[in-house]
Specification:
The protein is an alpha/beta fold and 219 residues long. The protein is 27% helix and 29% strand. A hairpin with a 2-residue loop joins strand 9 and strand 10. The structure holds S-adenosyl-L-homocysteine (SAH).
């Protein structure tokens, strides 16, 4: 799917990636479309070269500016939840970060609208997505708490940062039949799924998680 230059060697090789996929299966990830992409998308290009030997460990890693690339299990779990009811055509993503989750969504063929409040992170993410020839992504430098009203409503919404409560603007931009997946809470955070069905928002709390905070304004 990606150019040979992204294939990786040693700790970023195909074998190392297969080990990660095996671990994710053991931890309950079942969606083959997601597992295939975890194997194919070169996570090592999303982190600093000094950390690339850890890129296929199932851990979060620092990406600068006090932020982290999400743990592969979390990315897989959220993606699996997001596409479970039906494959969305459009997704609003809050918190581009290094762009790894963005790449997984784009590689699924989804049109991604990704908002980030730290400009240098977003610029680097944009370049990586270009390098991977994933062009079905639009980026916006803004406080994602307002969503992206001119492009909505969205079939699905995903956030990788945790607010005390889900901003009303995000729910307003969810299309009927749509699904939102994000962490909610401050000290104690829960991975939460909200389905917009029959004019009602139905929320379900899944498992405890640990994300960076959802911060307001831009940096
Ligand atoms: N999936 C990303 C996660 C990055 S961490 C990755 O794997 O790299 C979460 C990101 O959310 C950070 O980059 C942070 O700057 C961003 N963020 C936090 N609050 C935000 C907000 N209100 N709007 C947009 N981005 C936000």
């Amino acid at each position: 799917m990606f150019d040979a230059q992204f294939a990786g060697v040693g700790m970023t090789s195909q074998r190392t990636r297969e080990r990660l996929v095996k671990r994710l299966r053991e931890k309950g990830i079942q969606d083959e479309r997601v597992l295939t992409l975890i194997e194919q998308v070169p996570r090592h290009i999303f982190v600093d070269e000094a950390l690339s030997h850890q890129a296929y460990d199932d851990t979060a890693l620092p990406i600068g500016y006090g932020q982290t690339i999400s743990q592969p299990w979390v990315v897989a779990r959220m993606t699996e939840l997001l596409i479970a009811p039906k494959m969305p055509q459009t997704v609003l993503e809050i918190g581009t970060g290094c762009g790894y989750q963005t790449a997984i969504l784009a590689a699924l063929g989804i049109k991604v609208f990704s908002v980030e409040r730290i400009k240098p992170l977003q610029d680097a993410a944009k370049q990586r997505l270009r390098d991977l020839k994933l062009h079905n992504v639009q980026f916006k430098y803004a406080d994602g708490g307002f969503g992206w009203p001119s492009q909505g409503p969205f079939d699905a919404i995903l956030a990788a940062c945790s607010p005390a409560e889900i901003p009303a603007e995000l729910l307003e931009q969810l299309a009927p039949g749509g699904r939102l997946v994000m962490p909610v809470g401050e000290e104690e955070q829960w991975l939460t799924v909200v389905d917009y069905q029959d004019n009602e928002f139905v929320a379900e709390r899944l498992e405890p998680v640990k994300f960076v905070p959802f911060q307001r304004g831009v940096e």
